[in-house]
Design goal:
alpha+beta; 434 Repressor (Amino-terminal Domain); globular
Length: 475
């Protein structure tokens, strides 16, 4: 096998500059001519094995470092240029390889500058949330991915689309599904659009939940999904066909900035319409009132999942038939928040949802268990919250699918209307409340054992004579 040639001119030049040597002096120490060293530094000659060993011996350097160059910086540079602010600036990775290899110090400086920029953006976001809670409207925003733009647009507004609700009720009336909505949807798709629904094994659909093949006019659903999620996927496809005009009108109302954002919004609104089909508004609202919003009873009655029924609770805001104004938050076991909604918009300013003491993080150790708590914010607002893990797509033996948990909350004033209120110990006067905050960066609770970051509003208390309960004590 032929030896791989090693061209490392910029790295050799960097060693020479660090040692403060001229080409003539370094060539003398390596036992080569200055002209040959000049060719090496310009990548016109490769390094021989003997020269590599001589470099390592004379200048006490690691051969691995000399051969790998700036490879350790390359993934970080790729991550930096994936930011929406810089996306599209580079046609490929070759320029990043060259920067990392030829100018590693410049690459390191760029990475430091980018980290400082991201830290500044995070602080601006936290500060914007803090000002919003105090009643000050801000326009602080950074470069956002399309998915972030859609999430922001949906979280700010009530999770209720009246037009889609009306369309869904008319669709259900047309279908007359009885106890078999899936069968009715399959029949409608075949009769009106010639689409056949087929469930395929994991090996055939390794990466998709749902895929529509226009050539064969077939809708494929992954067997990974539970029966409830399979029904939702079919309902989403049917909704996009039946309610396209209504969905497009709602997307236009969101005033999104680009086609990618509108495509993502179409998916989210199709999901909303599917829930409206599976749990028709009037029937679901009346069942909520009778069962006192018992999600397990509701999921059994409407043959849906816990997540679907809990999600539907945040949509009940029809004038004259409004339910309790719930809000919800879905996170994974690493704390990533990726779905937030509320009957009046997600209460980011009042509730936040970034506190590590919320039960949504604890329930991962008790899958399927519903944890109920009363939590008190720093301003005295008290919420009733319940949390439970969710069942996602079924993974194969060696796969590790992401598992998530859902937090559903409302103002504590609705305690007596909800079955979960009975799980809270004590009466209104002596109710045990867990002190939480919106997020560590904007929370000023002193002595918090769960604090993960210092507040941006207070200086750290750097007293060598005193050590507090948190690593981020502040003055």
């Amino acid at each position: 096998m032929a030896e791989q040639k090693i061209f490392a001119g910029p790295r050799v030049r960097r060693i020479r500059n660090q040692e403060g040597l001229t080409q003539t002096a370094m060539a003398a120490e390596l036992g080569i001519s200055p002209s040959y060293l000049n060719l090496i530094e310009r990548n016109q000659r490769p390094l021989t094995v003997q020269l590599l060993l001589k470099l390592a011996s004379v200048y006490k350097i690691d051969l691995e470092e000399l051969q790998s160059g700036g490879d350790t910086q390359l993934p970080q540079l790729k991550e930096m240029f994936a930011d929406p602010l810089l996306a599209g600036e580079l046609p490929g990775d070759q320029e990043l390889v060259e920067v990392s290899d030829v100018a590693p110090n410049v690459a390191s400086a760029l990475l430091k500058l980018y980290r400082a920029f991201r830290e500044g953006q995070d602080r601006l976001t936290d500060l914007s949330d803090l000002l919003a809670r105090e009643g000050h409207e801000t326009k602080l925003s950074g470069a956002r991915l399309p998915v972030d733009e859609v999430r922001d647009a949906l979280e700010r507004r009530p999770n209720h689309f009246a037009t889609l609700e009306e369309e869904a009720e008319a669709f259900v009336k047309l279908l007359s599904p009885g106890d078999d909505l899936l069968g009715a949807l399959k029949g409608w798709l075949r009769a009106d659009h010639g689409i056949v629904v087929k469930v395929l094994p994991v090996a055939t659909m390794p990466q998709w939940r749902r895929r529509y093949d226009r050539h064969s006019n077939r809708l494929f659903i992954s067997e990974r999904l539970s029966p409830y999620d399979q029904l939702r996927e079919v309902a989403m496809e049917a909704s996009l066909l039946r309610m396209r005009v209504a969905v497009d009108a709602e997307i236009a109302e969101l005033k999104l900035s680009n086609d990618e954002s509108r495509r993502i919004a179409r998916f989210e609104l199709a999901r909303y319409a599917a829930h409206a089909l599976m749990m028709p508004y009037r029937a679901f609202f009346e069942a909520c009132e009778r069962t006192r919003y018992d999600i397990d009873v509701l999921r059994s009655r409407f043959r849906v999942s816990f997540e679907q029924a809990a999600n539907r609770l945040t949509m009940l805001q029809r004038p004259g038939a409004s339910g309790i104004p719930f809000f919800m938050l879905e996170v994974d076991h690493a704390g990533n928040r990726f779905r937030r909604a509320g009957a009046a918009g997600y209460p980011q300013a009042r509730f936040g949802g970034g506190c590590p003491k919320l039960p949504v993080h604890r329930v991962f150790s008790q899958p399927g268990h519903i944890a109920v708590e009363a939590v008190e914010m720093p301003d005295g607002a008290v919420f009733l919250v319940m949390a439970r893990t969710l069942e996602g797509p079924q993974g194969a033996f060696q796969e590790q699918p992401r598992r998530t948990a859902l937090l559903l909350g409302c103002d504590l004033a609705h305690r007596d209307q909800i079955v979960y209120g009975a799980a809270l110990p004590g009466t209104a006067g002596d109710l045990l409340k867990v002190p939480v905050g919106p997020a560590c960066r904007v929370c000023e609770r002193a002595g918090c054992l769960a604090r993960a970051e210092p507040p941006i509003t207070r200086p750290l208390g750097l007293d060598e004579m005193v050590a507090g309960l948190s690593a981020f004590d502040f003055g």
